[in-house]
Design brief:
mainly alpha; globular; peptidase activity; PrsW; transmembrane
């Protein structure tokens, strides 16, 4: 029987001459060839089981290793303004790379953290002017910038994650502003057909269906208009719609309830509309592929699963169940796990496209 090399850490089969495991990243260089029967498959933890299940919806039945330290390692390194400017000029007819030039390496976004720092600095100055210098005219500015901070910073992160670099920051900003407001208007239109009074489990589910459907309409519109066929493109478009929705909704709540809601909604924005819509956008692009957007796209099993998952996350978020902060923390973690699986699917798609092009 021929010997086959397997990773001693996760059991993944290894290509001849491989130095690192493609599944878990374990260094296998210089190791002896081992037989599959001698490999001990470690017991999967909750995250491994969850990523394997979710990854099955994308067409691959194996777990996705989560390495947040590696993904965000560039955040803590020094970067020049020239590097930031180089990231912002992608997506034009002259700066969009060919498929061969697109990287399928693990994404390492960092620019979003600098954008978030700028927002924090601006908010600090506004707070100081209001509460130290009694500059009440800065009140509206505080609401606007605070509402924008986390959603827009997350949007920049998804802009960086789109390694195709084929959607410009100008186009992303248009989708964020026009699409965000349009999704709110669409949602308000759908609310004309339902009545929501006191929040309960049932009304939370109704709100989730209405709002996610309203945002889906705009996500589908822009995916069809741009005619994108890549998962990471769909994720970026969805994130732009969700970030716009979150920004304008938070500003509305702050104008009605006061600035006290800004901190809570700012923190919880790490796992709400921007991520929910990014999931839906990626799923819609996955279902669409290179075909035109049609009714059959929305009947695709993978899309339906991810869309229902986003509705469920939204409904549970609003529902009066367990302690709010415990519930929010769990739901934010779940949303991020789904996003990481879809990012992996997007990078896998790049590798497949490049391999098919060379044959």
């Amino acid at each position: 029987m021929n010997n086959v090399r397997f990773c001693p850490k996760c059991g993944q089969s290894l290509d001849d001459g491989a130095k690192f495991c493609t599944n878990c990243g374990f260094n296998v260089s210089g190791m002896h060839v081992i037989d599959q029967q001698t490999v001990s498959h470690p017991k999967q933890n909750l995250f491994d089981s969850a990523t394997e299940k979710i990854n099955g919806w994308t067409g691959e039945d194996k777990m996705v290793p989560i390495h947040l330290g590696t993904m965000f390692s560039e955040v803590f390194k020094s970067h020049s303004e020239a590097e930031a400017e180089a990231l912002f000029i992608v997506g034009t007819s002259k700066t969009t790379p060919t498929l061969e030039q697109v990287s399928d390496s693990p994404v390492k976004p960092w620019l979003f953290s600098r954008v978030l720092i700028l927002f924090v600095l601006t908010i600090s100055l506004l707070v100081g002017s209001i509460y130290v210098l009694n500059g009440q005219k800065m009140y509206v500015g505080l609401i606007s910038i605070s509402s924008l901070a986390v959603p827009f910073s997350l949007l920049i992160m998804f802009f960086e994650i789109n390694t195709f670099k084929n959607i410009s920051i100008f186009k992303v900003t248009k989708i964020f502003m026009v699409g965000g407001v349009a999704s709110l208007l669409t949602t308000l239109g759908l609310y004309q057909f339902v009545e929501v009074d006191q929040m309960s489990i049932v009304t939370a589910a109704i709100v989730a269906v209405v709002e996610e459907s309203g945002k889906l309409i705009m996500i589908a519109y822009y995916i069809n208009r741009i005619n994108t066929k890549f998962i990471l493109n769909g994720m970026l478009i969805g994130a732009a719609i969700g970030a716009g929705f979150a920004t304008f909704e938070t500003a509305g709540y702050a104008g009605e309830l006061g600035v006290s809601v800004l901190l809570l909604r700012g923190v919880t924005a790490l796992g709400t509309h921007t991520l929910w819509c990014a999931i839906v956008g990626a799923a819609l692009a996955l279902a669409k592929g290179s075909e035109p957007l049609s009714a059959s796209t929305f009947q695709n099993g993978s899309f339906i699963r991810f869309f229902l998952l986003s509705i469920a996350l939204h409904a549970i978020w609003d529902a009066p169940l367990i302690s709010d902060m415990k519930k929010y923390t769990i739901l934010i973690i779940i949303a991020w796990v789904v996003i990481l699986v879809l990012i992996d699917a997007g990078l896998r798609e790049i590798k497949t496209l490049q391999q098919n092009q060379t044959h």
